[in-house]
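Quiz preparation item.
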């Protein structure tokens, strides 16, 4: 197995550059901050960016937890890959990861300074220090449920692989341990936002109550309404649900698992 390691201090842009290095070396498998990523999908592991402290994040990134370590090792055995890209803050961290996952001890090291300009590194540092932004080299839809309640955005750029242009999407998250702090959204605010969107979009439905079911990957929403006039309810509900999902997730960062309307009454003048 061939192992390439991209090494650089925290916040210097390793995850941002990961897909370019993977493309250059024709690598499909990446280990980054506790995640095992294969062909742009998270296939095993837990992100260190979900941890509440920096110490816990470091332990997660080096696979300190036995269950975490075992899950990733089992998946690697199933994938049977011949090349892996490991992202790390130091060679010492690489050695910890290699030992934890029982990987070959011969590896090639690429320093972030070898593939990024000073200006690129400084920009990455500013984004980390001032805005608390971290990059994960997978598309938003791959990690959205795992990072419900976090501010999420995406970056898209183009790389050349096998003489073909590929659009690559990476995800930006603001982790819990960011100095900007943790934020919460109360149930009252959530219900008010949802009720406002429904009644703004249509006067056919009057919101009577809203029930929330909180889960680790997001929330399920039941909206109890009275129907004020005859209409095509399925089509109306579909349009309103789309609006709620788009605007609510953008405002709060909370992932919506499911939305359903419950029709309590029909009142016609």
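Solution:
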């Amino acid at each position: 197995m061939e192992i390439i390691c991209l090494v650089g201090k925290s916040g210097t842009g390793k995850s941002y550059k990961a897909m370019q290095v993977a493309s250059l070396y024709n690598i499909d498998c990446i280990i980054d901050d506790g995640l095992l990523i294969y062909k742009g999908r998270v296939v095993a592991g837990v992100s260190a960016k979900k941890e509440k402290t920096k110490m816990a994040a470091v332990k997660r990134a080096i696979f300190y937890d036995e269950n975490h370590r075992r899950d990733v090792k089992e998946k690697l055995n199933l994938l049977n890959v011949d090349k892996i890209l490991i992202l790390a803050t130091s060679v010492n961290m690489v050695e910890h990861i290699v030992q934890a996952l029982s990987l070959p001890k011969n590896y090639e090291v690429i320093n972030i300074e070898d593939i990024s300009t000073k200006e690129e590194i400084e920009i990455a540092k500013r984004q980390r220090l001032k805005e608390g932004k971290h990059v994960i080299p997978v598309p938003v839809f791959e990690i959205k449920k795992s990072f419900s309640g976090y501010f999420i955005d995406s970056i898209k750029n183009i790389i050349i692989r096998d003489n073909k242009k590929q659009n690559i999407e990476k995800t930006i998250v603001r982790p819990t341990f960011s100095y900007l702090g943790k934020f919460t959204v109360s149930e009252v605010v959530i219900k008010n936002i949802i009720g406002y969107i429904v009644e703004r979009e249509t006067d056919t439905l009057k919101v009577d109550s809203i029930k929330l079911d909180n889960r680790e990957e997001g929330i399920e929403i039941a909206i109890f309404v009275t129907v004020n006039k005859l209409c095509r309810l399925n089509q109306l509900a579909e349009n309103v649900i789309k609006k709620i999902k788009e605007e609510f997730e953008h405002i709060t960062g909370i992932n919506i698992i499911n939305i359903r309307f419950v029709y309590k009454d029909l009142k016609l003048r």
